[in-house]
């Protein structure tokens, strides 16, 4: 008999025998009595009061880092790969790509990192920066970023963070609004700054991270700006020669002003105090099991995102190691990695990583493609294994982690796991909802749980988090120990806390994690933040959720995305879009509802392959794809397909767009039409396609 078959028969029999012993469902969130607007509130089942700090006597991030460095002295903290060579490679269509050959990780231990932080901190003051002025860090995720951040904390200097993908206008706005005097940046960012230098009234000093080839930008900056230009190393040297005493912050001092890429208008700066961030770190401590010095963390998401900033601060607090990489060099097959050399994850072998759903989707598609390409026995085995594991995770807990798992892992999933270094034990996902399918896929292939979080920059990323042993999909978990979550009625939208079978309503988040508000924007702050009669602060998220009986939250809608039509019916744009996206002709879709009409319309980015296939079959002729998108028959075909999707998903008649416009150009984050997490920027899209939308309603 084929040894493979013995391989799966034994475990199947064993796990069938064990399957009866199901895990008893436990309550992860329990109701709690709170003040403020009436609603249905839930707290974490283990903590009666919101957690403020996990570390006794520690009240700020600066204290936390110092304590940790004194404790873990010679353990590795910050790891960076040395560049061995850089080459340009050209693809068949003539475009050229940069390919990197990167070396092993080289580490700075906690004691060395602390020395660098103290030096940079002193150097900053010696270079003329005043404590009450703000520093902006505008660079890719890397060790210097973390050092600059911690250095500022030690001098009670507020750090302003900006997304690298924000446009010029947003960049200008955030630097100007916070009156930043010193910017820490890399080469690419320096170039962007020079382009807008004439609009930056307050910037006096630019500290650049030395990179090969930066001299061109430096010379340009010297010629065209009045900035003082210093290298990162120079500031370090300045500080080491003339140390300055630390000037530690208070818990209520603002640690970071984080500009969020809102889906509308200019970005808003969220003020986070040391207490806010500390509360979130303390809460996440309780979520990830056995976090500690054995952990190695893969750092590659933008540090300007609260998820990454909080994750790295947490790693540095527990004695773990942080290895830096980038999304484009993450795996051996990543686009910037030279063929035959190691990607970041293979070189680092991390145990923990954070991810946004878009990246996990990419990993899943990559694995599927590879398996399909192999075909034959490999594909069959993979599918059998996958389905066995799927039903095991779904049903019996013993089956999920027992003997059979070991065998399947040995047989097939080891190879998949190797893509991310082979040692991952926990993945934190946040930033946008993760599809159930992807969650399962990663669960099974990596053999590691995914903690899915829900939180906003405004709540310092802390709100809910799914516990590591929660194997359900589509939900975002129970409240973190630092937050209370309350649902309040939104009668207009038809969501009530008295709804059956589950209470539904707008999600309101309260606790020490809730931030002070938006920088220089009192009106907006007062609109969405409220303090109750018991002194607790609440943030009104605008998201609609429902609570499952075990106290876990599910996000079901967004208030902003619900429009009341002229005839009084409510259309939930997101829900309709998700339903219609099932049509094969849809690559992306935005439904638009005008309150002055009784029907909605849609912009559809057409899936090129599918539409061209249809045109070929129908003998429709066209010169280019843009022309095909204007073809009346093509529009009819897509409408028909949408109607079918609407029927399958049981949409109401008024929810089905009456007219559509086909778009030939994809919507990408670079074009500014969707966010980095690929969420639609409705306002921007509406503006861009103003005329088309007007025509659809004409
Ligand atoms: C920290 O800086 C802020 C803003 O400059 C200031 O208001 C606050 O008093 C400082 N905190 C301490 C402990 O000096
Ligand atoms: C910068 O801010 C000042 C006031 O803080 C304002 O007068 C000026 O117009 C702003 N400039 C830009 C380019 O936004
Ligand atoms: C800067 O100015 C110097 C001298 O005026 C000139 O030689 C050099 O080409 C300029 N560099 C750039 C990048 O404009
Ligand atoms: C998993 O369980 C859910 C309900 O508990 C069920 O609807 C679903 O079909 C199951 N999936 C598999 C693959 O067993
Ligand atoms: C800014 C904020 O909401 N701070 C609160 C943090 O939590 C403590 C205790 O729960 C409150 O006293 C603060 O007002």
UniProtKB/TrEMBL annotation:
It comes from the Eukaryota. Signal peptide: none annotated. Residues 99-519 form the AMP-dependent synthetase/ligase domain. It catalyses: (E)-4-coumarate + ATP + H(+) = (E)-4-coumaroyl-AMP + diphosphate; a long-chain fatty acid + ATP + CoA = a long-chain fatty acyl-CoA + AMP + diphosphate; (E)-4-coumarate + ATP + CoA = (E)-4-coumaroyl-CoA + AMP + diphosphate; (E)-4-coumaroyl-AMP + CoA = (E)-4-coumaroyl-CoA + AMP + H(+). Gene3D superfamilies: 3.30.300.30, N-terminal domain of ligase-like. One of its GO terms (molecular function) is long-chain fatty acid-CoA ligase activity. InterPro entries: AMP-bd_C_sf (IPR045851), AMP-binding_CS (IPR020845), AMP-dep_synth/lig_dom (IPR000873), ANL_N_sf (IPR042099). Its EC number is 6.2.1.12. It is an enzyme of class 6 (ligase). Keywords: ATP-binding, Ligase, Nucleotide-binding. The keyword ATP-binding applies. One of its GO terms (cellular component) is endoplasmic reticulum. GO terms for biological process: phenylpropanoid metabolic process. It holds the Pfam family AMP-binding. The keyword ATP-binding applies. Its cofactor is Mg(2+). Belongs to the ATP-dependent AMP-binding enzyme family. PANTHER family: ACYL-COA SYNTHETASE LONG-CHAIN, ISOFORM J, LONG-CHAIN-FATTY-ACID--COA LIGASE. This is 4-coumarate--CoA ligase. It comes from Brachypodium distachyon (Purple false brome).
């Amino acid at each position: 008999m084929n040894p493979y078959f013995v391989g799966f028969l034994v475990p199947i029999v064993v796990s069938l025998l064990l399957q009866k012993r199901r895990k008893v469902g436990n309550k992860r969130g329990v109701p709690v009595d709170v003040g403020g607007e009436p609603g249905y509130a839930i707290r974490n089942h283990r903590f009666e009061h919101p957690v403020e700090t996990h570390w006794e006597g520690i009240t700020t991030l600066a204290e936390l880092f110092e304590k940790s460095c004194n404790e873990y002295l010679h353990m590795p903290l910050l790891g960076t790969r040395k560049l061995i060579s850089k080459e340009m490679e050209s693809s068949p269509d003539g475009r050229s790509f940069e390919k990197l050959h990167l070396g092993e990780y080289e580490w700075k231990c906690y004691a060395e990192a602390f020395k660098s932080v103290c030096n940079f901190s002193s150097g900053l003051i010696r270079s003329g920066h005043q404590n009450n002025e703000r520093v902006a860090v505008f660079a890719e995720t890397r060790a210097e970023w973390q050092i600059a951040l911690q250095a500022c904390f030690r001098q009670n200097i507020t750090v302003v963070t900006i997304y690298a993908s924000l446009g010029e206008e947003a960049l200008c706005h955030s630097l100007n609004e916070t009156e930043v005097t010193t910017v820490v940046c890399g080469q690419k960012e320096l170039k962007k700054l020079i382009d807008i230098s004439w609009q930056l009234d307050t910037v006096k000093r630019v500290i650049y991270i030395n990179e090969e080839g930066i001299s061109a930008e430096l010379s340009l900056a010297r010629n065209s700006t009045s900035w003082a230009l210093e290298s990162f190393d120079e500031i370090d040297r300045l500080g080491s020669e003339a140390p300055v005493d630390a000037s530690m912050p208070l818990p209520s001092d603002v640690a970071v002003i984080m500009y969020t890429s809102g889906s509308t208008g200019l970005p808003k700066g969220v003020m986070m105090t040391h207490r806010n961030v500390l509360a979130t770190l303390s809460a996440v401590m309780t979520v990830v099991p056995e976090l500690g010095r054995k952990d190695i963390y893969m750092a590659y998401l933008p540090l300007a995102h609260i998820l990454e900033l909080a994750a790295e601060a947490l790693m540095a607090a527990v004695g773990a190691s942080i290895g830096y990489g980038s999304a484009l060099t993450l795996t051996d097959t990543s686009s910037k990695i030279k063929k035959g050399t190691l990607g970041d994850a293979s070189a680092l072998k991390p145990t923990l990583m954070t991810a946004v759903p878009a990246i996990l989707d990419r990993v899943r598609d990559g694995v599927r493609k590879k398996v399909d390409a192999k075909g034959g026995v490999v594909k069959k085995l993979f599918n059998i294994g996958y389905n066995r594991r799927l039903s095991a995770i779904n049903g019996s807990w013993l089956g999920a982690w027992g003997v059979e798992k070991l065998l399947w892992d040995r047989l097939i999933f080891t190879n998949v796991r190797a893509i991310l270094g082979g040692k991952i034990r926990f993945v934190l996902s946040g930033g946008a909802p993760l599809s159930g399918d992807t969650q399962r896929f990663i669960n099974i292939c990596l053999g590691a749980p995914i903690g899915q979080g829900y939180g906003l920059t405004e709540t310092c990323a802390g709100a809910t988090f799914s516990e590591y042993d929660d194997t359900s999909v589509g939900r975002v978990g129970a409240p973190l120990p630092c937050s209370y979550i309350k649902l309040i009625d939104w009668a207009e939208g038809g969501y009530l806390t008295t709804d059956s079978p589950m209470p539904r309503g707008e999600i309101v988040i309260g606790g020490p994690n809730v931030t002070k508000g938006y920088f220089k924007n009192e009106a907006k702050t007062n609109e969405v933040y409220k303090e109750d009669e018991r002194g607790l602060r609440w943030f009104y998220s605008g998201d609609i959720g429902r609570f499952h009986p075990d106290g876990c939250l599910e996000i079901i809608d967004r208030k902003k995305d619900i429009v009341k039509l002229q005839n009084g019916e409510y259309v939930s744009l997101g829900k309709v879009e998700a339903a219609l996206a099932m049509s094969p002709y849809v690559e992306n879709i935005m439904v638009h509802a005008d309150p002055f009409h009784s029907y909605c319309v849609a912009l559809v980015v057409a899936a090129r392959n599918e539409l061209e296939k249809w045109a070929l079959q129908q003998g429709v002729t066209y010169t280019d794809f843009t022309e095909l998108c204007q073809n009346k028959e093509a529009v009819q075909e897509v409408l028909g397909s949408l109607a079918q999707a609407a029927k399958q998903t049981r949409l109401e008649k008024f929810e089905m767009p009456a007219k559509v416009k086909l778009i030939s150009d994809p919507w990408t984050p670079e074009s500014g039409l969707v966010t980095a997490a690929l969420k639609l920027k409705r306002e921007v899209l509406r503006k861009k396609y103003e005329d088309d939308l007007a025509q659809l309603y004409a």
